Amino acid sequence: MVSPHAEGVATLQSMTRTALITGITGQDGSYLAELLLDKGYRVVGMTRRSSTDTRERLTHLGDRIEIVQGDLLDQASLVAALRVAQPAEVYNLAAQSFVPTSWNQPVLTGEFTALGVTRMLESIRQVDPAIRFYQASSSEMFGNITESPQNEGTRFRPRSPYGVAKVYGHFVTVNYRESYGMYAVSGICFNHESPRRGLEFVTRKITDGAARISLGLRQQLQLGNLEAHRDWGFAGDFVRAMWLMLQQDEPQDYVIATGEMHTVREVCEVAFSHLGLDYSDHVVIDESLIRPAEIDRLLGNPGKAKRQLGWEPEVSFEELIRMMVDADVERLRVNPEPVPTAVLPLPHNLSRTG
Ligand code: NDP
Ligand code: GDP
Question: Which among 132, 150, 312, 352 is placed 20 to 30 Å from 248, CA to CA?
Answer without folding.
Answer: 150
